[in-house]
Specification:
This protein is α/β, with parallel strands linked by helices. It is built from nine helices and eight strands. Strands 1, 2, 3, 4, 5, 6, 7 and 8 form an eight-stranded mixed β-sheet that branches. Helix 1 packs across helix 9 and helix 6 (151-161) runs antiparallel to helix 9. The protein is globular. The relative contact order is 0.19.
Length: 248
């Protein structure tokens, strides 16, 4: 049975499962102005790659949530391996019903998840992110962007990654934030790098990229990998990424 695209790529060894890769994540972190006194929530943390990097670099307190218990278990192990357990808390939680009080966090970061939600789902997540942010806090998001509205591309992407996705244009992503009371919205947009060779080398290093390619060529993985790779290649002029910083 075919797996969801992000889980499949993680199985191959890919650690950065974001449409704009490290480049977009680094821009988000710069906008967030992280420091040791900031209280941070990462939603859909997956295996904790970003959370752990933030804890190592800034020593800030981070609560990281996901619905995937296996990914959370891996995140726990990874945090322990590099000695940042005192800074991070990994919990199972639903983005649409976060178990935190109003005005709790200085920063909420959420990458490559809103794309996978319906219109109502996106709205509910944004309501929750706004609610748990402190006044003056910032929401940092990173998602798939359509260069222009194109239903055929949306359907093709959904079939390729085995998840029904709803990417938006830059204007529609900005409107989503503004319609949920975020006062200021800054964006950084660029080319989709998730499965490009140059993007993988930048994100994973040459050794990591070779490992991913080696695993992709295995009999059980080849068909799904090529299906995804060909879809992204075919639509490289139509798909991109958007990183967005939205202030409460």
């Amino acid at each position: 049975m075919a797996e969801a695209g992000h889980k499949f790529l993680a199985k191959l060894g890919k650690k950065r499962l974001r449409p704009g890769g490290k480049l977009a994540t680094d821009w988000l972190i710069e906008q967030g102005q992280f420091s040791s006194d900031k209280k941070v929530l990462e939603v859909a943390c997956n295996m904790g790659t970003t959370t752990i990097e933030l804890a190592k670099k800034y020593g800030c307190q981070i609560t990281a949530v996901d619905l995937d218990t296996k990914a959370l278990a891996q995140a726990h192990l990874a945090a322990a391996k590099v000695g940042v357990e005192e800074f991070v808390t990994f919990e199972k939680a639903n983005a649409m019903k976060l178990p935190y009080e109003d005005d709790t966090f200085d920063i909420v970061i959420n990458e490559a998840m809103l794309t996978m939600q319906t219109e109502k789902g996106k709205a509910k997540c944004m309501e929750e992110y706004y609610r748990v942010l402190k006044p003056g806090g910032v929401l940092l998001t990173h998602d798939v962007m359509l260069k222009q509205k194109d239903e055929a591309v949306r359907v093709e992407l959904s079939r390729a990654i085995n998840v029904n996705v709803g990417p938006l244009t830059e204007g529609s992503w900005i409107q989503l934030a503004r319609s949920h009371r975020f006062d200021r919205v800054d964006t950084f947009v660029g080319e989709m790098t998730l499965m490009s060779v140059s993007g993988m080398i930048y994100d994973e290093g040459l050794g990591g990229t070779l490992k991913i390619c080696f695993n992709a060529l295995k009999k059980d993985n080849y068909s799904q990998f090529m299906k995804m790779f060909k879809m992204f290649q075919k639509n490289q002029e139509k798909l991109g990424f958007i990183a967005m910083a939205s202030w409460k």
